[in-house]
Amino acid sequence: MISIAVSPQSVVDGSGTMSPQDAITRAIKEFGSETRLAEAIGFSQGSVNRARRTGRPTAEMAVNIEIATGGRIKRAWLRPDIFGAHVTLIENLWMQTTRRRAS
Asked: I need a surface site. Which of 12, 30, 66, 83 has the fewest CB within 10 A?
């Protein structure tokens, strides 16, 4: 059995370490304001502000941000505890198993 530990405090992207708080701040900058991001993802401005302050958006918010940014801000950056490397590993293993069964 393979086990991978992912710190909820930071994840590594192509340019270095990005905390969830940095990722949500980056999403806010991309949209120009908390209000515009909130409108794009279907949340209130207060919810976006709380996520920025705490560095802990909801799982649904993380997914919506990834969709709204066209994948430029990854859900795994926003919630590595839910969508981090361990999830990617499981998805990859599942896909490999599915492909073998289809062959």
From this structure: 12
The whole-model pTM stands at: 0.70
Distance, CA of 61 to CA of 70 (rounded, Å): 14
Angle, helices 45-54/34-41, rounded to nearest 10 degrees: 110
Phi-psi region of 32 (alpha: psi -120 to 50; beta: other; left: phi over 0): left
Phi-psi label, residue 8: left if phi above 0, alpha if psi -120 to 50, beta otherwise: alpha
Nearest CA to 84 among 19, 1, 15?
19
Cα gap 14→18, rounded to integer Å = 10
Q: DSSP assignment, residue 13? A: E
Q: Return mean pLDDT, the chain.
A: 80
- What pLDDT sits at residue 9? 42
